Structure formats: C-alpha cells, structure tokens
Amino acid sequence: MLSTSPSDLIWVIGFSPHSRWIAPVVRAAIRGAWPEAQEIANTQLGDEALAPELMEVAIQQTAEYLACSSPIGVEQTQEILSRYYRNAVRRKKRATQRLLFRGSTREIEFLLPSARSFESAVEADIDLGKILDETPPDLRHAMLMRLGARSSWKDVASATGKSMDAIRMGCRREVERIRKRFGVQGPGPKV
Q1: Which of 35, 77, 91, 156 has its CA 20 to 30 A from that of 43?
Q2: How far apart are CA 10 and CA 27, in angstroms?
C-alpha cells in the first residue's frame, strides 16, 4: 500500500471565501507534523496505518479553529494541529481499550456457566409445558395451588368448587399420569 502524503490529507478542509489563507498554512503544518504523527500512531496504537485517518480528524478541527481566528503562522498552526492529533490518538486508544479482552477463552468459560447446564432445564420446562397442556384446567389450577403455592387442600377445594377428597384424588391421579409419562417409577410425593 502506498504511503499517504501529507498534501493528500488537505482535501478535508472546506473553504469559505474569507479563509483562503488556511490551506497553505495547514499544508505546511501537516508536512512538519507528519513524521511525528506517524511515529505517535505506531507507538501509541501499534499501527502506523491509522495516522492518515486520525490526521484527517485533526486537520478538520484545526481548520474549524482557524476559521474563527485571524491569520497565524505555520509554527502556531503546527502546534494546534499536533494538539488535535494527540487528542484524536487518545480517543482512538480509549475506544480500542474498551474492546480489548485480556485473558484466554478458558478463563471466560470458567466464569460463565456452561450452556449444557441450561439445556436439561429448558427441555424439562418444554416437556412439562406439553404435559400440563393435556391436564384439565381445573386440575392444573389445583396442582399449582397445592404444589406451587403450598395452599391447603381446603383452600384448593374452595377455589375449584369441588370437595377436598375429589380434588385430592384428581390431583393424585394426574401426578401419577405425569410420572408415567416421564418414566419415573416408585412411590411419588404425597399429594
């Protein structure tokens, strides 16, 4: 890739009729500051190729600053340009440091739980949702009251409008059906 010359960067400046003096002064300031700008980009950011991009920002800011002031010399313009360039380098460095991850992927995996640990819980939730869809709504409500909210059988019976024995027996049968569906053997929980 061809190296960008300092005079190629001057295109950034937009001219107003009363500020035609800016272009020659800024062009001379760029020629004086260019070697140092490349060195700063290389040492601070590790990439000399970023110098033209950052210099364009500095040129634009310098031109805006000079448009509001009276004509000045090349040395003063070079100081202003260098200051804006260093600020652009600092901003770029801060932006890249925010995205910089230190460490290895093993450290990240150690800090984060495995996706496999959630897999079985998600599958069980989906299966339970499908199974509970087959449960009649009054029994589903009764089971959620009794097993989920730990309500008494008396409260469950009054909410469903059935007797305590009828609702208890219906819930027990439904739990047994769900246990068979999951393939769970042995005595189940007391419902």
Answers
A1: 77
A2: 6
| Measured distance between the N- and C-terminal CA atoms of the chain, rounded to whole angstroms | 77
Q: Could you tell me the two tokens for 102?
A: 């230190």
On whether the CB atoms of residues 139 and 131 are closer than 8 A, the answer is no
d(CA 191, CA 188): 8
Q: Do residues 140 and 175 both lie within one domain? A: yes
Give the sign of the dihedral formed by CA 96, CA 43, CA 30, CA 85.
positive
The amino acid at residue 98 is R
- Indicate whether 73 and 127 sit together in one domain: no
Question: How far is the C-alpha of 94 from the C-alpha of 106, rounded, in Å?
Answer: 26
* CATH code of the domain covering residue 118: 1.10.10.10
Domain hosting 51: range is: 6-98
Widest Cα–Cα separation across the chain? 100
Task: Look at residue 61 and give its three-state secondary structure.
Answer: helix
Q: Give the separation between CA 24 and CA 28, rounded to whole angstroms.
A: 6
- Structure token digits, residue 178: 């769900």
Which pLDDT tens digit goes with each residue over 59-109? 888 888 888 888 889 999 999 999 999 999 999 988 887 665 566 666 656
Which of 56, 71, 91, 69 lies closest to 25 in space, CA to CA? 71
56 inside domain: yes
